[in-house]
Structure formats: C-alpha cells, structure tokens
Automatic annotation (TrEMBL):
Alphabetical list of PANTHER family matching this protein: ACETYLORNITHINE AMINOTRANSFERASE, MITOCHONDRIAL, AMINOTRANSFERASE CLASS III
Required cofactor names: pyridoxal 5'-phosphate
InterPro entries noted in UniProt: Aminotrans_3 (IPR005814), Aminotrans_3_PPA_site (IPR049704), Class-III_PLP-dep_AT (IPR050103), PyrdxlP-dep_Trfase (IPR015424), PyrdxlP-dep_Trfase_major (IPR015421), PyrdxlP-dep_Trfase_small (IPR015422)
UniProt keyword annotations, A-Z: Aminotransferase, Pyridoxal phosphate, Transferase
Organism: Hyunsoonleella flava
Name under which the protein is recorded: Aspartate aminotransferase family protein
Keyword S-adenosyl-L-methionine listed: no
Family named by the database record: Belongs to the class-III pyridoxal-phosphate-dependent aminotransferase family.
GO molecular function annotations of the record: identical protein binding; pyridoxal phosphate binding; transaminase activity
Keyword RNA-binding belongs to the record: no
Gene3D superfamilies hit by this protein: Aspartate Aminotransferase, domain 1, Type I PLP-dependent aspartate aminotransferase-like (Major domain)
Length: 382
C-alpha cells in the first residue's frame, strides 16, 4: 500500500539521534537546526528523557482518562512552577492542532459566541476551526470554510477594535511569534491594546504558544515578553521532545463541566512521563538562559553576513531573510553540508529552530557552511 503522497521529502533517512545531531541509514551525521518543526527541545535521545520514557513504558504506558493519573497533576504543577502561570487549569491532549481546537471550543462555550478573529500569515493547525483560523486557503476544505473567521493584518488595531465591537467574536487567537508564516511579530503596543480590547468586548484572548512556548523565545512563553494575561494558552511541540503531547492552559474564570472536553490518548502515562522529563531538563540545565545566550551569539554572527537582509524572531525561534528564495540554499545545506534548516510561507526566509541546548560550536559550524552555500547559490544564479 503506498503512502498518501502529501509531503515533499528530502532524500535523507534518519535512523538515530543524539543531542543536536541525527544520523542517517548510511551513518552520515547531520546538524539538526530545525528540530522537526521545533519539536526537539532538549536534544535527541537525552538521557533524562530516555530513562523516564523507558521506565514508564515498562510499568504502564496507557490508560484512559476514566481513572486517576497522578502524573497529570505532577505535570500541571511543574508547568505552573516553571512558567509562572499561576492558578491556570490544564487540559491535556495530543497535538497543537488539537490544543487550538479545544481552546477555540472553550472560548465559544464561555462567551456563547462563535466568530473568531485571527491574523495574516497565522498558522494554528489543520483541523476544523483551527485550520479555518489559519491564513492559508490551500489547506482549508469547504467543510472548514463554514467556520466564522475574520483574518486581519498584524498591528491593525483599528481593525481589531471594529471587529470586536460587533459583539459576536468569541475568541481572538494569535501567535506572538509567527512560525510557519515567517517569524513576524506584532508590536508591543498592538498586543497590549488587543488584550485590553478583548477584555472590554467579552472576547477570549488565546495565545498560541504551540511553537513559541517552552522556553524557545527566551521566556517560558512568548506572550510573557508583553504585559498581557491570556485567557487560554495552547501548547504542544517542544512539550514532549518528540512524544505526541499537547495541552491548553485555561484561566480560572473559565469553569469546567463534565464532558465539555475529552480525549482518548491525551494526558496518558507515557506522554506525561515524557513531558515531565522535558521540564526537569529545562530546569536542571538552565536551558532558558542558554536560549538567550545562544540567541545573542547567533544574531551577532548573522549580522556579519551582508546577504542576510533581515533577522526575524527572538530566542531560538529565528529567521534569516534573503533577497532570493532559499529552496536551493536549504538543499545545499542538507546535501552538501549535512545541516537541517526550515522554510516558511515566506520563500525568502530560512527558519532556525534548534534544540535549546545548542552550543556556540554548532552555530559556528552553521555559519561557515552558510557562507559557502550562499556563494554557490549566487554563482549558480549568475
């Protein structure tokens, strides 16, 4: 049976990984500066992670949410302690799309309204309401398009005010650093004014931290760079270091009722063990401090390369923008220099999302390769 052909694939077959490297079926080592879409937060096969997952799967890998699972409460407590998000409630699920789907559903339950406001170049997932709130018509099927969603440009505070004052918006959802869209950010004034408008208009303010959370921005959540308090926070990618896990942080003003949300696999024992291993490692290895130090170093190196026209993002969620499309550059990096990088909706942007324990030597290796690859691409173009 053939696979359903929806992914354009590089001709590389990773079979193992350690730290910031992966190894293919021919034994070739690759520097992983993409982490499988920012999923690998503490490095491949981290000993803490391997030990925790191995121990848990040998005891109890899964049971449904019909029983007590103390690991869920341990995970919730650890998220609260490291994030500083006091008194929120946690609902566990399996992915970022599912987290955003439940976030939007909660907002509609809470407000009794159904329209959503989202933003240009935003990406929130590929399911139902989450994909309807995503600014990509190519992945929105007719069944998704029946959702009531208004998409506005970032920093259009008047547009937000106009839409929210119509009184039918249940939720405004925003990435504080856009991922797939190309690392764009709203201004500080914009985010803080949006938060105030949501409060005035009985609209739930949803922070999509699926990619930007878990220390990637240099703070635990990217929204913490601003003076805002989201009603709902969605989390996923770096949460499990590769194990499928997602979640929703829910403000205490939103009351839980039996049956309003549910999931078969969400918050299972193995997922919680993986999630706890990630948080323990972030704490023990001071990885958020490392994010800030390595981000400064990376940006200082990027500023020495004239072909880089713009540096976007923050922390270790960065984009290098050129005045040419980077498809060939990415191919050269992976095939000739054995370095994984990412692309974005902005075809001129190279996306960098390494594990949070990256070191200067890895950054140096990348920039040496990048300068060589840029020259090759320019020579080919000429």
């Amino acid at each position: 049976m053939p696979m359903f052909d929806v992914y354009p694939l590089y001709d590389v077959t990773p079979v193992s990984g350690k730290g910031i490297h992966v190894y293919d079926d021919k034994g070739m080592e690759y520097l992983d500066l993409y982490g499988g879409h920012a999923v690998i937060s503490i490095g491949h096969a981290h000993p803490n992670y391997v030990e925790a997952v191995t121990k848990q799967v040998s005891e109890l890998g899964f049971y449904s949410n019909a029983i007590q699972n103390p690991l869920q409460q341990q995970l919730a407590n650890k998220i609260e302690a490291l994030s500083g998000c006091k008194d929120y409630q946690l609902f566990l699920c399996n992915s970022g799309a599912e987290a955003n789907e439940n976030a939007l559903k909660l907002a509609s339950f809470k407000t009794g309204k159904k329209r959503v406001v989202a933003f240009t170049n935003g990406f929130h997932g590929r399911t139902s309401a989450a994909v309807a709130a995503t600014d990509n018509k190519n992945i929105i099927a007719p069944i998704n398009a029946q959702q009531a969603v208004t998409i506005l440009p970032l920093n259009d505070i008047q547009g937000v005010k106009t839409e929210l004052e119509k009184g039918d918006v249940c939720a405004l959802i925003v990435e504080f650093i856009q991922g797939v869209g190309g690392l764009d950010q709203g201004s500080k004034d914009f985010f803080e004014q949006v938060f105030a408008l949501c409060k005035l208009n009985n609209t739930m303010f949803i922070a999509d931290e699926v990619q930007s959370g878990y220390g990637r921005s240099g703070k635990f959540f990217a929204f913490q760079h601003y003076n805002v308090t989201p009603d709902i926070v969605s989390i996923a990618k770096g949460m499990g270091n590769g194990f499928p896990i997602g979640g929703v942080l829910i403000h205490p003003d939103i009351e839980a009722k039996y049956g309003m949300l549910g999931t078969t696999f969400g918050g299972n024992h193995l997922a919680c063990a993986a999630g706890l291993a990630v948080l323990n490692t972030i704490e023990e290895e001071n990885l958020m401090d490392n994010v800030n130090a390595m981000s400064d170093y990376f940006i200082s190196k990027a500023n020495t390369i004239s072909e880089i026209k713009n540096i976007k993002g923050r922390g270790l969620m960065l984009g290098l923008e050129f005045d040419f499309e980077v498809g060939d550059l990415r191919k050269d990096l992976i095939y000739n220099h054995h370095i994984f990088t990412g692309g974005a909706a902005n075809k001129k942007l190279l996306r960098i999302l390494p594990p949070l324990n990256i070191e200067k030597q890895h950054i140096n290796q990348f920039f040496e390769a990048l300068e060589t690859a840029i020259k090759k691409v320019e020579q080919t173009a000429n």
